[in-house]
Prior knowledge:
The structure holds two protein chains of two kinds.
Chain A: E1 10-16, E2 19-25, H1 31-38, E3 57-60, E4 63-66, E5 79-81, H2 95-102, H3 112-125, H4 131-138, H5 149-167
Parallel strand pairs in A: 1-5
Antiparallel strand pairs in A: 1-2, 3-4, 3-5
Helix pairs in contact in A: 2-5, 4-5
Chain B: E1 7-10, H1 14-24, E2 28-31, H2 37-42, E3 50-53, E4 64-66, E5 69-73, H3 78-82, H4 87-90, H5 92-97, H6 104-107, H7 112-118, H8 124-132, E6 135-139, E7 144-148, H9 149-152, E8 153-155, E9 158-159, E10 166-173, E11 180-187, E12 194-202, E13 206-212, E14 219-224, H10 228-241, H11 252-274
Parallel strand pairs in B: 1-3, 2-3
Antiparallel strand pairs in B: 4-5, 5-10, 6-7, 6-10, 8-9, 11-12, 12-13, 13-14
Helix pairs in contact in B: 10-11
Amino acid sequence: MPRLSAANRHRVGFTLNGKPVVVEAEPRLLATDALRHGLGATGTHVGCEHGACGACTVLIDGAPARACLTLAVQLEGREVTTIEGLAPAQDRLSVLQAAFRRHHALQCGFCTAGILISLEAFLREQPEPSEHALREVVGGHLCRCTGYTPIIAAGREAAALLRQASQSTAAEPLDV
Amino acid sequence: MKPAPFDYLRAGSLDEALAALAEHGSEARIIAGGQSLLPMLNMRLAKPALLVDIMGVAGLGEVRREGGMIVVPGGVRQAALLQRPGLASEQPLLAAALPWLGHYQTRARGTVCGSAAHADPSAEIPLCLVALDGEIRLRSRRKRRVLKAADFFSGMMVTQRADDELIEAVAFPAARPGTGYAFEEVARRHGDFAIVGCAAMVEAAQIHLAVAGVADKPERRSWPRLDGSALDDALNAFAWELDAREDLHASARLRRDLVRTLGRRTIEEAGRCLA
């Protein structure tokens, strides 16, 4: 493949929350800045910019990733999910988001997008997580408001609701 | 906190990556998962002229067995090794140590070989390689060579890798019968850099202990099956030999103390696994 020069912007095409997008990126552009400034997807927050805080966590091909430790050019051809892609419809929260709301698992909300993304990936991988495992996953994020306890409670409740929904034979969507 | 400008090459083959390294030498850096390199780029501690991305290179993504060795090529992510079926019996030290490596989110992206290349003195992968007497398989356009882990790591983020070489794979010896393995770590927060990490391997007649986070690279010592105060004395001598670092997180004295106490606990746990 041709070498992408530092001095120019290059077309990077990928799927963002199910829709094809193209962004113009210098090789050094971080995925966080491509999402926020290039595509206006400002739900992904930028905290520390060196991978410590977890606020910018997104899914790349279904696996969690720090967007600040990812180059925009590395997104070429990938499927990216951000916080904007979690809710099933306008004015409806996902099961996990609704559990966060019920448990007051956010206050200022700065870290919330990243935590929701991580838990979304983890609950898909591990539908019956232990509290210890949930704590380890949330341990990859910094939250300075909640003290984490309500986040863990929301994660546990969401896991239980998602299990019920997948076991339920009823065709109705889970109403939370 | 934005990287300085660089060119970017998504290598389609190993030959293409090696040619780029041969041409650009120290000006080029390999990027795989990027979980160690991107922070260095963002903080401008590294300013390469060219990044060579090897994640598109075929054949680097699968862990394989070669006799008694678990061979992990350059494209294997840390999470993939941790999720390898049967890892806890194939090599219990890796199964115990990998959950301590960064966070769930960084393991999903960071590679095993990338962690070896980065050579952070407190990192778990270099520690396990040194503890198990594993190998680093280097390749350049000129040649292939294999180094023992203890010879590869030469200092704080310094290795014997030449500018035109990349790590094609690392190889961990699989568990041997009659050998116990254990891992312990102390960090400020799970997933943070280790203040001290200990990896022990206990055989019928020998004890091996490797320690990370104390000296400028992981170090291993071997003793006969000491116990009681003889083991304390050996660990105390080891702790002093390591010329412990001092930083914001821990004094040199605390690090030496952890070599004595955490080291002993790790050896005892490995001994129980053997029993």
